[in-house]
Amino acid sequence: MSYCSIRGAVTVEENSRESIFENTRILLKDIIKSNDLDLESIISIIFTATRDIDEAYPAVVAREMGIVHAGLVCMQEMYVKNSLEMCIRVLVNVETDKKQKDMKHTYLKGAVKLRPDLVRRDFVSVAIDGPAGSGKSTAAKEVAKTLGYIYVDTGAMYRAVAFYCIENGIDTGDDFAVENSLDKIDIKLKYENNEQKIYLNDTDVSSDIRTQTVAKGASNVAANEKVRKVLVNLQKKIAENNNIVMDGRDIGTCVLPNASVKIYMDADVCERAKRRCGELELKGIEFDFDKIKQEIAERDENDKNRKISPLRKADDAVFFDSTNKSIEEVKNEIVCIVKKAI
Asked: Would you identify the CATH topology of the domain 2-113?
């Protein structure tokens, strides 16, 4: 046995307890998974944070993850002009039968620029495509949580664009008007309490975008080539430096054609309509089942026949029928598919 050290760093979106904890958790999980560590083998972890992070101790996350025997230290870094801001660094000391040269260091998000020579390029990407109501988003969230990966809801990005247009009186079917609005739209993904939140121009619209009106508008803007180019570039950037589970309609065919695992999820249209109605009922929103069913069928037609990146199963994707299956069953089956593939 020998003693080795593993370096890691990650940037946080904001100086909040939620953002600090979520990003620290992602960093530690990646280090543990990529080095195949047993928690008992961790001797100590030194955490440092830039001076603009002071809402919580990153070390708390280690204890929550079950790292209870290791020594933990948190320190504020000295300030260096023009240095990377909003950054958490770790030095994980372990007892292992491997050599120091075999240790895999982890630099995520904005911290990639700190040590590009140490950045691993073997991140796992899971692409889940499928029509509206197939259960892909719910499944993707649960799979990501189980595997310790980042969940990326691409549909929410298109919904955010549609929401902006609707709120500002812009016809989502008017390509020229939508394209002219792109410079006024700033979309950010943040991770709070293990959940993805979507911010439109610094306002959390995660709940506002979950209406049928916005869903229909999202289908319209998703057919716009310029909109897709902007959002796909953002999606690819996220996947370049993280283990991710990404769901949408063209992830395996266009966004991540080289994804580690590709899954195409579908379900009977009546089943999908029931699920959507159930979501609306939980939110206290009135609905008409037949209308919902019709809208889903219309969106299927729209998504499958659009000229730009239509909805279709990638040739190398695993087909998965979620009809009459619980979310737990779906999650477990997909996790097995991913583990076998990687």
From this structure: 60s Ribosomal Protein L30; Chain: A; (3.30.1330)
| Token pair listed for 162 | 């549609």
CA–CA gap between residue 318 and residue 309 (Å, rounded): 19
Q: Where are the beta strands (DSSP E) in the chain?
A: 2-11, 42-49, 71-76, 87-96, 106-108, 125-129, 150-153, 187-192, 195-200, 203-204, 244-248, 261-266, 318-321
For residue 100, the model assigns a pLDDT of 93
> Domain spans of the chain?
2-113, 125-341
CB-based burial label for 55 (10 Å; 0-12, 13-18, 19+): middle
Looking at the DSSP assignment, which residues form a beta bridge with residue 73?
46
> Contact at 8 Å (CB) between 129 and 317?
yes
pLDDT for res 193: 66
State which residues of the chain have pLDDT below 50.
Answer: none
User: Taking the alpha carbons of 310, 316, 318, 321 in that order, is the dihedral positive or negative?
Assistant: positive
Q: Domain 125-341 class? A: alpha beta
- Predicted local confidence at residue 322, as pLDDT: 93
Q: 11 CB contacts (<8 Å, ≥6 apart)? A: 23, 84, 85, 86, 87, 88, 108, 109, 110, 111
CA 13 to chain centre: 14
pTM of the model: 0.62
